[in-house]
Every structure is written in C-alpha cells, then in structure tokens.
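Figure S7 source data.
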Amino acid sequence: MYKHKVLITEQEIARRVEEIAGEMNKQYGEKTLDMVCVLKGATIFMSDLIRKLQMPVRIHFVQVSTYGTGSESSGTVSLHFSTAADLLDRDVVLIEDILDTGITLDYLLKHLKEKKPRSIQVCVLLDKPTKRKVNLQPHFRGFEIPDEFVIGYGLDYQELGRNLRFIAALDPSEYKP
Ligand code: XMP
Ligand code: MG
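Tokens for the predicted xanthosine-5'-monophosphate complex:
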C-alpha cells in the first residue's frame, strides 16, 4: 500500500456517521429518502450511513467523469446514471466522498434540480474548504480536512486504498498529479 499518515480513525468515522444519520433521522422523520451516491468514492460512506437511517431509503448511483489535466477538476463534466432515476417530488440527498473545488457537486446539483425533486440536500464525508472555487455549502458534512490528498474509506489513489478502514493523507513522495 502507498505510504500514508492516518488522519481520521475507523472509530472517529463510525461515530460521525452515526451523528449524521441522527441529524437525517431528525430532519426527515418518516419521509422516504432517495439517496444519489456519486461513484465510486461515496459507496462505503453511503452503505454505512443508510443502515443507520430509520426511514425507507432508495439508492441510485451516478458516475461523473471530469475532463481536464492533472488533479484539478476542469469545467467539463459528463454524467451516467445507474438507473433512470425518477426524482420528481422526491426528497433527495446527494452523497459524495469529498468536496474540493465544488465544481463536480455544483454541476450535479444543477442537473438533479432539473428532475424536479421536492427537496435536495448535499451530504459529504470530507470537506477541503480551502480549495473551493464555487460557492457551495454541504447540508451534512463529516469532517473538514486540510488540503492534502487523502485515501481510504472509499477514496482512492489510482484506484487503490478504497478498502482502508480509516482516512489517511497520502505521502507526497507517492503522489504524481
Ligand atoms: P471537485 O474539485 O469538483 O472534486 O469538488 C471533487 C472530486 O475530486 C476527487 N478528489 C479526491 N479524491 N482524494 C481522493 O481520493 C482526495 O484527496 C481528493 N480530492 C478531490 C473526488 O473524486 C471528488 O469526487
Ligand atoms: Mg478518485
């Protein structure tokens, strides 16, 4: 595995996931939720979270491809939904691993709003607020982290590291943007 430094432990993640689920349970009550999970990074977060929710939940997946050079998102994004997600009049939570510049989530939100949901909120596990280029505040947020490249608990570097139980900063000596 790549050299890394643990930033958030398995126990800290579990506790925070429980708290976020508690906030959602309080806010949505018995309303059915439609979760839209951004592939692939948010899959582990979503699977842990939804098992702590008390209301009926549907899940959907969306694959986002951004075109650009290096590690920075460009403005060009394409979407592919796993199912023809009918979100008309639904209460939707868009769930993502990490909010960085905000370009990806901003694009997704605009697209999902065209499906005319009753409500739509954003839930992110991690937030790197120093990198923001778009004004976007997540409604539910796990942890604020410094501007380091992180892996684990769904997040990858070159497709590896997703199965780590914790979140870790990748050692810069390993990183080739
Ligand atoms: P933007 O910049 O559009 O992009 O908010 C968010 C997407 O960028 C990826 N990303 C990361 N992936 N470790 C990762 O594994 C990181 O530290 C990291 N920072 C950004 C991620 O795919 C997210 O969806
Ligand atoms: Mg990735």
